[in-house]
Structure formats: structure tokens, C-alpha cells
Amino acid sequence: MVINGWMAQDPGGDDRTDVAVAASPAKAQQREDREESPLLYKPKHVWEQIDDDQKKQAMAFAEGYKQFLTEVKTEREGVVWAVTRARSLGYVPFVPEQAGSLRPGDKVFWINRDKGVMLAHIGQRPLDDGILLVGAHLDAPRIDLKPNPLYQDEQMALFKTHYYGGIKKYQWLALPLALHGVTVRGDGVRCPVVVGEAPEDPVFMITDLLPHLAKDQMEKKLTEAVQGEGLNVLVGGLPSPHSDKKSRDDGACKLAVLEWLAARYGMKEEDFLSSEWQVVPAGPARDVGFDRAFVGGYGQDDRSCCYTAAEALFALEQVDRTAVVLLVDKEETGSDGNTGMRSRFMEHALAELVYGLQQGGALPPELAWRRCLARSRALSADVTVGLDPNFESVLDQRNAARLGYGLAIAKYTGSRGKYGTSDANAEFVGEVRQILNREKVCWQSGELGKVDQGGGGTIAQFLAVYGMEVLDCGVPLLSMHAPWELAHKADLYMAYRGYGAFMASRLP
Questions:
Q1: InterPro entries annotated for this entry (predicted)?
Q2: Are 274 and 184 in contact, with CB atoms under 8 Å apart?
Q3: Would you kindly state where each structural domain of the chain is located, as residue ranges?
Q4: In the prediction, which pLDDT does 468 show?
Q5: Which residues contact 37 (CB under 8 A, 6 or more apart)?
Q6: What percent of the chain has pLDDT over 90?
Q7: What are the residue ranges of helices labelled H in 51-157?
Q8: Residue 22, pLDDT score
Q9: Between the CA of residue 486 and those of 299, 447, 449, what are the distances in Å?
Q10: 140: nearest Cα among 324, 332, 328, 311
Q11: 142-281 maps to which CATH number?
Q12: What is the distance between the alpha carbons of residues 360 and 78, in angstroms, rounded to a whole number?
């Protein structure tokens, strides 16, 4: 036998042990071959699959993303970013006067009440062959101001709030917070509002109870420890110099806040009734980890998919089918309202596009529009949960997405018995797999937790009602819906590449 490079023989001089030992490396190789068999599905970390140049590209891509996250903390700001970026690359707003004049290669966009946008790069094939659409949502869990928010208590001025989306309320206490939004004043002037982001700005805070006196609070369930009506934001604590001594206990601090707002925005208290202000975490997105592998920041559900999808569209030079990115509002509260996915915004925009591309001898616009919807293919670009070693018991590890393993596809979302899901057809999942593999996009499969553990939905089900093929496909996150969420830079880059590969594909 061979031991550390020298030969051992039995006392009788028989080398039979050589035969057995000589076979050992072969057996080891067989075991290795079995492990690497192409018959097995074994996801790998992105860093094991790409070269040094691609690694540099992934890290560089995250720099633009961090800037985006820092600047975009509301759906309105997301629309401003998307439109500004689109215009710089030759996209123009669609106008009805363009009917009949649009041509392949044209780039147009539609804005929905400053809270949603649809961007389209016109392809070579007729629209009744269908489009390739990537849809994501711009809204994120947050805290909104009530219509009449400002009040004073114990010589402090505060805002009453109403949380938006699925949050853990206790996570929002004792954090530096900023105010983002818009006010339409009584004179009709529209005033964008951002306070708490500039270095010279004040920040705001929802106070918490000190642990020394939190005995009763600590015995409550997490869902009960902080009440929704207790999420009051501290915004001031000095009396107005214009109030008399007698009135200072009755509202002088509140008056001081109103005077500040009047000086900066020309506001009166009544103007809160026609305002949309959001309370969000203050400060920039940051690298996380010694190796800077992760991006930490607010609103990555679902702005990570908005950014990667839009940038993928902007990078396309020529497309076979018309490529569309749809960014909508209200997903976190059920996709309702006239800016959510359940509105008719996408239908209207596509109808305008069909009419705008009509030429002699073409199908009737109504039929072309309906064929366009039914023959389209879509990726519902939304995040999924990543496997967190601190909380791995809530996931089926055989079906969980992992950070750093690439773009995560989910055949279905929903909850329990697949309620609230569209459940993608096997044929379409196969098409997407082929596209991603052909373009060497690193991807994985993921599921939103164990059966009966909980779950969640996306806009996929509202796209599927038109008959189009839809698959959920997005970035895995840790700490989803927290004030700070975590994404891996490798997954962000692969989402960008995957969405681009899909929209550039030549499907039958």
C-alpha cells in the first residue's frame, strides 16, 4: 500500500494490498464524479461560477444601486428617477398624436399619477405577438402620517401616523427617521417634502420604553408590545416665541412646528389634509460586511427589482418583441387603487401602444390589444426570502433561496394551500430556465417559507388574469420588511443580467 509516498508490504512480501489501495483513488474519483453528475441539481455560489472581470462588474453595479436606494425612498421618487434616467437615454413620453408613427426601436413611457410608470422599447415583431414584460412595485412598507397629524402633549409636538404594509411595529422605535412626501397647498401649489436626509437636517424619532420599566411590555406578544396608535413621531419640543406665556401649555410647541413648515414650504395646518408624507429610515444605503458583499438599506422590497429591471431595459440595444418594464404602486397593501396593479393603467397604456403602431391591413385594434395581452410573457420581479442562519427553522432548506446564489425564481408564492398565487406553468418555467442557462445567468429556485408557516403574494396573479405566462423572479433578501433590509451584490447583478436576457430573448 502507498502511505505518504512510500511502499508498505506485508511480512510475506505479498503486494496484494497494493491492488486494493490502488483502487482507492479510482473510488474517490467515482464518488466525485457522482457528486458532479449533470443529473443532479446542485446550486452554486455566484462567486464560484464567474470570472474576476464579472466579479468587478457585480461590485461596480452595486455602487449605482446604493445611490438609487439612498435617493429613492418613496414611489414618487422612484418614478422621478426612472423617468429622468429614461429621458437621458432617448425615451420620450407617449402622446396620442404619435398614433401610427411609432416604429421598431422607438422608446416611450407613460406615467400614472406620479406613482407608477411603464417604459417600452418597441420591438421588431408586431404587438399582437405579445410583449416581454418585467413588472415590479415601487412602494415599500413604511409609516404614513394621518390626514390631521400634528398635536402637542407634555410640551412636545408629535405626528399621529398609520403604518403602511406588513411591518413589525417594534422595529421602528428609537431609530433616526426622515420625512418624504408631497403637499398640495390651498393655493394649488405642489411642494415636494424631504427632511432628515441632508447632513444639516434634523431627524425624527418614535420613542421606546426604557427596559427598567418595561416589565409589562416585555411580557406581551411582539404583535401587542407596540400598538399602531403608539407610533407617534416626535417632531418638536420648543415653544414658539410668538406664543404668550399663558398659551404655551396648550399648543406653543405645535405652533413652532407650523411656523417652521410655513417658512420652508408655505404650509398651513389645513394643508396636511392634501398631503402624502411618509416616515422612512434616515440616511444612506451602505455596504455591509468586511468584504462589502452585501448592500444594507431601506426599501429593497421591491426597489431592488425595480432598479435591476429598469437598468436591464435601458441597456438593451435592439429587441425582437417589445420589451416593457412596469413599475406600480400599492403592492404592499393588496395592489388596489388607481395606481396599483389591479388598476387599468397597463391595459390603457398597451391599448395606446397598439393603436400607435397600427398600419394599413393590420388587425382591428381591439383584437390586436387582446392578442397582445394573451400572448405576452412576464416576470413578476419581486423579492423572496433568503435563508438566514439565525432563523432557518421557518424555511424548507431543500427549497430555500440563498444569498449569493443568484437570481431566485419561484414557481408560486401565496400562502398555505397556494392561495393568492398564479402558479407558473411548467412550460414557461422551462423557457425561462433555457434563457438564463443560455446566457450564463446564475440562478436558483426559492420558496417563501415552509408550508403553513405564512407566505405572501406578488403582482403575478394580477398579470396572469390577462392570459399571459407569468413567473415570479427576484432578489433574495434578509430582514425583509424591516427598516433596513439586506441583499447580496452577486444576486443584484444576476437579477440585472437575468431580466435583460429575458427581455432580449427571441421566443417563438
A1: Peptidase_M18, Peptidase_M18_dom2
A2: yes
A3: 46-140+298-504, 142-281
A4: 96
A5: none
A6: 79
A7: 52-71, 75-88
A8: 45
A9: 10, 18, 17
A10: 332
A11: 2.30.250.10
A12: 38
Q: Can you list the alpha helix ranges (DSSP code H) found in 320-382?
A: 345-356, 365-374
The contacts of residue 60 (CB under 8 Å, 6+ apart) are none
Distance from C-alpha of 268 to C-alpha of 209, rounded to nearest angstrom: 33
Q: Map grid coordinates 424631504 to a residue.
A: 194
Q: Do the Cβ atoms of 164 and 481 come closer than 8 Å? A: no
Scanning the structure block, which residue is given the C-alpha cell 404655551?
A: 248
Categorize the per-residue pLDDT at 42 as very low, low, confident or very high, splitting at 50, 70 and 90: confident
Grid cell digits, residue 199:
447632513
Distances (CA, A) of 173 to 207, 218, 225: 6, 15, 11
- List phi, psi (to 5°) of 28: -60, -40
415 pLDDT more than 90: no
With contact defined as beta carbons under 8 Å apart, do 203 and 177 qualify? yes
DSSP structural state of residue 237: -
**Average pLDDT over every residue of 51-66:** 98
Phi/psi of residue 281, each to 5°?
-60, 135
Fold of 46-140+298-504: Aminopeptidase (3.40.630)
Select from 471, 486, 439 the least CA-distant residue to 62.
486
* Residue 17, number of CB atoms within 10 A of its CB: 14
Q: Which pTM does this prediction carry?
A: 0.91
What are the tens digits of pLDDT across the range 326-358? 999 999 999 999 999 999 999 999 998 888 887
Report the C-alpha gap between 482 and 170 in whole angstroms: 10
